[in-house]
Amino acid sequence: MSDVILRVTDVHRVHGSGATAVHALAGVSLEVRSGELVAVMGPSGSGKSTLLNLAGALDLPTAGTVEIDGAVTTALRPADLARLRRRKVGVVFQDLNLIPSLTAAENIGLPLELDGRRVSEARRAAVGALHELGLDALADRYPDQMSGGQQQRVAIARALVGDRRLVLADEPTGALDSLTGEGVLTVLRQRCDAGAAGLLVTHEARFAGWADRVVYLHDGRIADEATATGVAVPPAAGAPAGVPAGGTEQAQR
Predict the structure, then answer these.
(1) Measured between alpha carbons, how far is 76 from 249 in angstroms, rounded to an integer?
(2) Judging by DSSP bridges, how do beta strands 213-218 and 221-227 pair with one another?
(3) In this model, does residue 144 exceed pLDDT 60?
(4) CB atoms < 10 A from the CB of 88, how many?
(5) Above 90 in pLDDT, residue 5?
(6) Assign residue 193 a region: left if phi > 0, alpha if psi is -120 to 50, beta otherwise?
(7) Non-local CB neighbours of 21 within 8 Å, separated by 6+ positions
(8) Residue 166 to residue 158: CA distance in whole angstroms
(9) pLDDT at 209 over 60
(10) Cβ atoms within 10 A of the Cβ of 129, count?
């Protein structure tokens, strides 16, 4: 397989200290390679969003290391970390984070402009990203002129614009109907097939099926992992460690 774009090694993330400390992640290790899409599943509070934030250098681990395209996030100065995020990482947030005063094309092109691209070049790239998602008509609309589903797809276009090596998506189909959700996963899958590494947080088994592997988090640890021939589910009560409740259809790694 091709090169590792994301390497998470024995990562811990602790919020607070002492008796009130919350261990959001406890010793998680994971690799995602170029051309690979990995889905992360698990109950609320299992550490999925924390893992995504660390993978995108939006947060730093308490212990362990996160490497993005060979760069260790804790070894970078803040300015270099920001540059890494702009150039290498695309993130689809649950709350979208679109800027209300910017049009769809301006929201999408903003990361490119911040990285020194000309406004005209950033707009061309933004319009191309919108076209990829079938959203050509939204280029000059503001977020309050779009439906929730349209805003979600604009946020996805922003994550995919440019030459991003790593694409992270936190429930990217949450505000979309089934058909539109399938279309979004098609674009994400195509981007990974073209060489990006993808990490997808989802509660939906049918969307996890688009991934090459499925990782199941529980209480901040990886409880199970499977290829996407089946869906990663927590082990059945009393099942031996590493054996999924779904049976041998899931090829374990």
Answers:
(1) 42
(2) antiparallel
(3) yes
(4) 21
(5) yes
(6) alpha
(7) 14, 15
(8) 13
(9) yes
(10) 24
The Cα 177–Cα 48 span in angstroms is 23
CB neighbour list of residue 19: distance below 8 Å, 6 or more residues apart:
none
Burial class for 78, CB neighbours closer than 10 Å (0-12, 13-18, 19+): exposed
Q: How confident is the model at residue 175 (pLDDT cuts 50, 70, 90)?
A: low
Which are the contacts of 169, defined by CB distance < 8 A and separation ≥ 6?
91, 92, 156, 159, 188, 198, 199, 200, 201
Give the closest residue to 220 by CA, choosing from 7, 20, 28, 19: 28
Q: Write the single-letter amino acid at 126.
A: A
Rounded Cα distance between 40 and 172, Å, is 13
Instruction: Kindly report the average pLDDT of the chain as a whole number.
Output: 86
Give the DSSP H/E element, type plus range, for residue 72. Answer: strand 71-72
